[in-house]
Write a structure and sequence with these properties.
The protein is of the alpha/beta class. About 40% of the residues lie in helices and about 15% in strands.
Length: about 240
């Protein structure tokens, strides 16, 4: 490989030895389909299992992130990367084979500042379908989605990366910051709908298919960064 990679994919991970190989299999398939170079960085958040070992054996760059905050873990991975385009994806997802090709295509458009791939669930139920239906209007209105989130490296720096003082919803606030920056330049957010990830339903498996509706009344407090210990446990002490 000569020069910097076109895309840097950052994977924040904590005790993901079970699901990380599944993600990396799909990343390898997407890299083979892409004409450019992709570097993969696993930001290991002090895992007590074999996450870091597996990532190293699979050829990933492994960086240790010591702060127990998802924004800080994502930022640590980006700092260890060199790609012109920065992308992040959670370790329990699986990426589409056209992920890197689609990101590259979209980011060649100077009218685009950033984007996200969106996700389709690995399984469906009535509760999961109702949750997705509840979130879709926000996605359509703001063009903010989950899955693989991507932007140019200089724009990542311009908005200060992910907010390390925010324990949850850091991805939403990151995209909103990019949206504001893009608006000042006449640029927009996009959704890479041709390359949706297969999203893990782990939280639904652990807490029930209707559990999201129990948290819904707390969403305004969450967006104001007022998060209870119980809600922090939901994100930071998963059963894995």
């Amino acid at each position: 490989m000569t020069g910097s990679p076109r895309i840097a994919l950052v994977i924040p991970a904590y005790n993901e030895e079970r699901l990380l190989p599944r993600l990396l299999d799909t990343v390898d398939a997407a890299r083979r389909r892409f004409a450019g170079a992709v570097e993969v960085i696993v930001a290991d958040n002090m895992s007590s299992d074999g996450t870091a070992r597996i990532a190293g054996e699979r050829g990933c760059t492994v960086v240790t992130a010591t702060i127990r905050n998802i924004g800080a873990v994502r930022n640590a991975g980006v700092r260890a990367s060199t790609g012109a385009i920065v992308a992040t994806v959670d370790a329990d997802h699986r990426v589409h084979p056209d992920t890197f090709s689609e990101i590259d295509r979209l980011m060649h458009d100077p009218r685009v500042i950033a984007g996200s791939s969106g996700a389709r669930p690995e399984r469906w139920s009535l509760g999961i379908a109702a949750t997705f239906a509840l979130l879709l209007p926000v996605v359509w209105l703001l063009k903010i989605d989950t899955g693989v989130v991507f932007c140019r490296r200089e724009d990542f720096a311009a908005v200060g990366g992910y907010d390390e003082n925010r324990p949850v919803a850091e991805d939403v606030m990151f995209l909103l910051a990019l949206r504001r920056l893009g608006k000042s330049r006449g640029q927009r957010l996009v959704r890479a709908r041709r390359a949706k990830v297969i999203g893990s339903m782990r939280k639904f498996d652990e807490h029930g298919d209707w559990h999201y509706f129990r948290w819904l009344p707390k969403t305004p407090r969450m967006m104001r960064n007022r998060v209870s210990d119980r809600f922090l446990a939901y994100w930071y002490r998963p059963d894995r």
